[in-house]
Design brief:
Number of domains: 2
Strand content: 15-25%
Distance between the termini: 33 Å
Strand order of the largest sheet: 3-2-1-4-5-6-7
Mean pLDDT: 95
CATH architecture of the largest domain: 3-Layer(aba) Sandwich
Order of helices and strands: EHEEHEHEHHEHHEEEEHEHEHEHEHEHHH
Largest sheet: 7 strands, parallel
CATH superfamily of the largest domain: Glycogen Phosphorylase B
Number of strands: 15
Radius of gyration: 22 Å
Number of helices: 15
CATH class of the largest domain: Alpha Beta
Helix content: 25-40%
Shape: globular
């Protein structure tokens, strides 16, 4: 059976699913992704095809529709490769596509008989979710109109899809009601055998500092350090945390770009702006910014962590939070809907008010004061990830079942409302 995966940053969410289908005898798996982003899956049975990075929207285009124009250009770049594949005789039974950048816009027209399974990461709303959540970053009517228009290519993709899949109930709740009847909720999956506790793990730095489980280690991890993930809240709490914990070290993973939201209006990076705000009050010998790191170093960070801080506006939930829980971390998370779906306060983690750095300070202090007493929370965190989000026993089997159901021409069972 033939399968096609389309993701501008392949493999993205398809790392395990594409490999599993390729491992099955008789299957042919092809992936289309943006030039320069391919080559990371390294699976001999997955053929990867690159399309050139499309140019963005024209400066003259109205700013509301620039994302739509960019998506159309990307959809065109993908479809050119798709037509070549079709003309070579390749006809996928199922197409798995992340349509968030417009890549799925025209695939239905190339393969009208293929089943299309599209991944829904986020549908934008101009109130009640991430937009306007933090009053420090107010929105205007112009922002709201732009956000509403931004959904154009998402809606076109949802209409074209036979079925949709989204990782969490929270993300499901953002999908327009008329599409929920053809949507499944299946998380991407955490490899709990790899993201596991390691009492002997150590983490070394060029300065000569070596940290282990016997040290007080506070961790904070984002793809990029930005307000959407509460970086500003964490940094403002950090001076007081370090004053209370004179032996603690802080390890911060993340780049200085922007993954979500807008760049600083005054220029520069969010990372530097909020570091500069508090730097005079920090002992920088105990604060370790390590940038983006390879996965093996990420694992060491969460394995030596005494307390892991995860903050987010109401938005997509990060894999890193669940991986930290799987590794036995005690997570202090923001009391926001995506986090509350996974963490129950005082059972498998601690929850604090996103807008109150003081509550974060108290929670971190509590964890570091009583690490042994709170071991039950760490144990429950790992158990819950194994029971609900394990890659091999829960999530990947569900993903495969969904794809096979579509391939057989059957209608999957939706996740309801």
């Amino acid at each position: 059976m033939k399968f096609l995966f389309v993701h501008q940053n392949f493999p993205g969410q398809y790392k395990h699913l594409a490999a599993a289908l390729a491992d099955e005898q008789g299957n042919e798996v092809i992936a289309i992704g943006e030039e320069g982003n391919l080559g990371r899956l390294k699976h001999p049975q997955v053929k990867e095809i690159a399309y050139p990075e499309p140019r963005g929207a024209s400066p003259e285009t109205h700013h509301y529709v620039r994302p739509t124009e960019t998506s159309v250009r990307r959809g065109q770049a993908v479809v050119r490769e798709a037509i070549k594949l079709r003309d070579s005789g390749f006809s996928p039974r199922v197409i798995c596509c992340h349509p968030g950048w417009g890549e799925g816009l025209y695939l239905r027209d190339v393969w009208p008989d293929s089943k299309m399974l599209f991944f829904v990461e986020w549908y934008y709303h101009n109130r009640g979710f991430n937009i306007g959540f933090d009053p420090e970053f107010p929105t205007t009517f112009d922002d709201r109109f732009r956000v509403r228009t931004r959904n154009a290519h998402h809606l076109l993709s949802y209409v074209a899809a036979d079925w949709l899949v989204t990782p969490t109930r929270w993300q499901y709740s953002t999908i327009p009601p008329e599409f929920r009847s053809k949507t499944s909720v299946i998380f991407d999956g955490i490899d709990t055998e790899i993201a596991a506790p390691d009492a002997d793990a150590t983490l070394g730095f060029k300065s000569g500092t070596v940290l282990s489980k016997s040290d007080e280690v506070i961790t904070f991890i984002n793809r990029n350090l930005e307000p959407y993930r509460g970086y500003h809240v964490f940094m403002r709490a950090l001076p007081q945390i370090l004053r209370r914990r004179p032996n603690a070290h802080v390890v911060i993973i993340g780049g200085d770009g922007v993954s979500y939201g807008d760049p600083p209006r005054e220029g520069g990076s969010h990372k530097e702006i909020y570091l500069k705000e508090v730097q005079e009050d920090l002992d920088m010998n105990r604060v370790h910014f390590v940038g983006r790191v390879p996965y093996d170093m990420f694992l060491k960070v969460i394995q030596v962590s005494s307390v892991h801080v995860y903050l987010t506006v109401p938005f997509v939930l990060s894999w890193s939070m669940l991986e930290a829980m799987s590794a036995g971390c005690l997570v202090v998370g923001s009391r926001t809907p995506p986090v509350e779906e996974v963490i129950t306060h005082n059972e498998n983690g601690l929850l604090v008010d996103f807008f109150k750095p003081g509550s974060l300070i108290e929670a971190v202090d509590r964890v570091l004061d009583h690490p042994t007493r709170l071991q039950r929370i760490r144990d429950k965190a790992r158990k819950d990830i194994i029971d609900r989000y394990d890659l091999k026993t829960i999530c990947l089997p569900a993903q495969l079942e969904l794809v096979r159901t579509l391939a057989a021409g059957k209608t999957p069972e939706s996740s309801g409302t």
